[in-house]
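Saturday, quiet lab. Running sequence design on the structure tokens for the scaffold JK sent over.
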């Protein structure tokens, strides 16, 4: 049993890896890679800032940023102040300019959009905590629609928080077992990402105890669930659409064999789209079938598996589900009511295009992505799009997530905070600026990025940062 260093690697697991590993890779190199600390990596959120502007912004910090070959927005990062200031407490992370994401987990979305693929309606079957959903949204430029599903109720809240922080407007959230979608939403998506629940054999560099409960029997049980998930996803995919199947595990049973099962189940309706040209060096991890089987020693990252499949023909539909979706509590807003909201929003610098539509529930006003509307009534949603405002007697109370997503840079009501003031904002405290703004309502910004909406009350700006997002401890002011 290999236990030098920190990662727990059972002998039975190493026997499986020895069989799965292609010629040219050594087991000793695999074990050595598993014992090395995992390199940190980030992905620039291009919905908020270009890669070049981000690199210019962070240049004074002297971060060592090494490009990730398969994601032009991705970088491995080394910092001198890693111990003093957590990466998640930097100003750029808090305002959604980047996402902390393991480099190999950027591969599935790269595969989904390979060769100029431009899907309009995408499903992320197992979405939390949101790394891949936010990456998809950035690749789509906040256009079209994404259905982001998460089976774990406790993780849906985290998923929404990350989507909101990144300024994303085109996502609808659901909370289901992913096996329902093939029957509930047949042929509804142009592209689907199934980053399947797995045995996690590739993550030992991040979690040294990941394999404490590993067993071949458990792998078999997981693979059975994965087959059901990929079958459901395939039915939810429109003919001509792309399905990316990925895992962070390494055995063939949960990877190649799951894809082979789908090919054999629907002969003539599934085509493998090889990934050897996805990025320079992809051939180093390419399987004979055209999949990417990434062992940790190849690119010095987590272990991963990625397959890209195309649905070439329709297949027999699954039985119609018998559950009820219930009454949809929203109604569309049109005409004078819609114009009133649009005009009021413009006064605070909030604007959107025709890809988002106004809906209302009681006094709440929401923006739904238009491309999700055909699915309304066919599945129950946890949340759709952006909560824009609440009506009250004197007008509208604009919501934080809408301000972050829609205010943009260069807003006419922008009031730039100092480093110290921005730190106070994230701690939920009111701001006492030396010079007050002219307007009664302003978009407070830092580094040009909207942090939220503030009202002038006497000599202070009243903080509207959501209580559940308030931060304590060391923040980015430590950089000053």
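Result came back. Writing it out in full:
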């Amino acid at each position: 049993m290999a236990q030098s260093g920190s990662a727990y690697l059972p002998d039975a697991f190493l026997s499986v890896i020895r069989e799965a590993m292609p010629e040219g890779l050594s087991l000793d190199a695999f074990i050595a890679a598993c014992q090395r600390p995992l390199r940190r990596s980030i992905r620039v959120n291009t919905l908020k800032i270009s890669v070049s502007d981000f690199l210019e912004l962070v240049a004074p910090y002297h971060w060592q940023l090494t490009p990730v070959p398969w994601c032009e927005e991705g970088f491995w990062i080394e910092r001198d102040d890693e111990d003093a200031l957590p990466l998640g407490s930097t100003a750029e992370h808090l305002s959604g300019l980047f996402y902390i994401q393991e480099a190999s987990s950027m591969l599935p979305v790269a595969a989904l959009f390979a060769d100029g693929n431009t899907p309009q309606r995408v499903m992320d079957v197992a979405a939390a905590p949101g790394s891949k959903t936010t990456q998809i949204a950035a690749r789509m430029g906040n256009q079209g629609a994404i259905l982001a599903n998460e089976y774990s109720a406790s993780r849906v809240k985290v998923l929404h928080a990350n989507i909101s922080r990144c300024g994303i407007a085109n996502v609808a959230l659901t909370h289901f077992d992913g096996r329902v979608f093939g029957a509930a939403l047949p042929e509804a998506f142009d592209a689907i990402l199934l980053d399947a629940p797995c045995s996690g054999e590739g993550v030992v560099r991040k979690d040294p105890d990941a394999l404490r409960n590993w067993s071949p029997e458990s792998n078999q049980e997981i693979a059975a669930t994965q087959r059901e998930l990929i079958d459901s996803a395939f039915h939810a995919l429109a003919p001509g659409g792309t399905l990316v199947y990925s895992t962070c595990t390494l055995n063939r049973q949960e990877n190649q064999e799951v894809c082979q099962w789908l090919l054999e189940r629907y002969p003539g309706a599934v085509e493998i789209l090889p990934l050897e040209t996805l990025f320079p060096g992809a051939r180093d991890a390419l399987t004979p079938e055209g999949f990417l089987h990434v062992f940790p020693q190849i690119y010095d990252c987590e272990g991963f598996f990625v397959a890209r499949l195309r649905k070439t023909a329709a297949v027999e539909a699954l039985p119609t589900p018998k559950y009820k979706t219930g009454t949809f509590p929203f109604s569309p807003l049109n005409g004078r009511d819609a114009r009133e909201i649009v005009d009021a929003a413009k006064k605070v610098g909030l604007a959107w295009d025709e890809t988002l539509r106004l809906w209302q529930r009681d006094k709440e006003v929401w923006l739904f992505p238009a491309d999700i509307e055909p699915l309304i009534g066919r599945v129950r949603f946890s949340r759709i799009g952006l909560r824009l405002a609440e009506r009250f007697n004197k007008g509208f109370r604009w919501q934080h997530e809408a301000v972050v997503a829609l205010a943009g840079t260069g807003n006419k009501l922008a009031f730039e905070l100092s480093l110290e003031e921005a730190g106070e904002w994230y701690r939920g405290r009111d701001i006492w600026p030396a010079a007050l703004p002219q307007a009664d309502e302003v978009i407070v910004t830092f580094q040009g990025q909207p942090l939220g909406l503030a009202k002038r009350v006497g000599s202070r700006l009243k903080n509207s940062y959501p209580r559940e997002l308030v931060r304590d401890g060391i923040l980015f002011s430590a950089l000053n």
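Notes for JK: Confidence is low (pLDDT under 50) at residues 1-5. Residues 216-236 form the longest helix (21 residues). Ask whether to fix the surface positions before the next round.
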